[in-house]
Amino acid sequence: MKITQIPLERAVGLPLAHDLTQIDAKNHKKSARFKKGQVITEADLETLRDMGRENLSVMELSPGDVHEDDAAMQLGEALCGENLRVTPPAEGRCNLVAEKSGLLWYLAETVNRVNQDPDWVLSALAPHRPVLEGQVVAGFRIRPLVLEDYRVERAVAAVRGSQPFKILPFRPLRVGLVTTGKEIVDKRVEDAFRPKLLEKLGRLGGSLMGQRFCTDSLEQISEAIGAFLEEDADAVICTGGMSVDADDKTPGAIRSQCRKISFQGTPALPGAMLMLGWAKSPKDGRDVAVIGAPACVAFDDRTALDKLLPFIFAGIEPGDLVRRWGVGGLCEHCEVCHYPACSFAAGS
Fold first, then answer.
1. Which CATH number is 56's domain given?
2. Smallest Cα–Cα separation from 107: which of 143, 57, 144, 161?
3. Of 110, 133, 166, which residue sits at a domain end?
4. How many domains does the structure of the chain reveal?
5. SS3 for 205?
6. 321 with 307, same domain?
């Protein structure tokens, strides 16, 4: 790269070597009207003349040099997967923006590989967390104004050798709620979970198709789960009766209806007794999630259930990822809850 002074008209298509300040005499202000590295266009010429410019100092790229804007766009094309878009470069930086609400999915190692080069900057939200349509999920740029082409190609290859970022969109699931506890059936205690579940489902685009109440009877709970399956529920959530107490029968009822148990217990607090099984839909044979939610879901705003539901709504079996929830899995019970903009939302 070299810096050359040339007449204004010849600067079109070339990047500036330094900032150009414009003075606003009327408002007694001055600011950088053109930024270092900004590529001059035909539309800029009149403004530059108004600023008294006849000549400009511009950068001329040497063979093998890649401008910061082009470097960011090349990496963006490799990073951008399903339901994402790349923003045009602004001061050398591009962003990935979610085009749908869903679960952010990428391999952390992809980010680490790119950042092995100290002149690359790739920063992203934590993987496996819910994001909203229009939300910026990653930003990236090079630190210098230009970079050797082989270093750009190396970063792009690191991404293509892995997998791109993508958003797994949330599906509008119909959820059945089975509420257990003799004290609730006898109306000695009011059910506190339904309003909390409605908020959680609304955030994910789901709906509550119905609620059934059961005593602490394995047979009753199992029948209630089965009834929702017959009604073509996309998921069933059972609340209460998930501890090791002698009267707690919910885990056994879930096992009686499920062909597979993914896990019983998670390293996240609150909500360590969370359970997930998969039942076979009697309608079409598809897998239906059956969740056992511990009593804390009725009282704590955020629990392990909030970590699980985005996976279910995105159509993903969390698998071994659940065993990693201990890192960041301790809810801080902040005075003002910022979920999902916190470590508790990340799926590790």
1. 3.90.105.10
2. 161
3. 166
4. 3
5. coil
6. yes
Confidence of residue 348 (pLDDT cuts 50, 70, 90): low
Are 222 and 281 contacting, i.e. CB atoms less than 8 angstroms apart? no
Cβ 261 vs Cβ 209: under 8 Å: no
> In the structure encoding, which two tokens stand for residue 168, read together?
């797994």
In angstroms, the CA 191 to CA 230 distance is 24
Same domain, 48 and 136: no
| Count of alpha carbons within 13 angstroms of residue 151, beta-carbon side | 21
Distances (CA, A) of 228 to 21, 235, 279, 290: 68, 9, 11, 10
CA geometry: angle at 282 spanning 278 and 286, to 5°?
Answer: 50
Query: Do 129 and 201 fall into the same domain?
Result: no
Paired tokens of 71? 């470097």
Tell me whether strands 174-180 and 235-239 are parallel, antiparallel or unpaired. parallel
pLDDT in tens, 84-114: 999 998 878 999 999 999 999 999 999 999 9
What is the domain extent for residue 38? 2-60
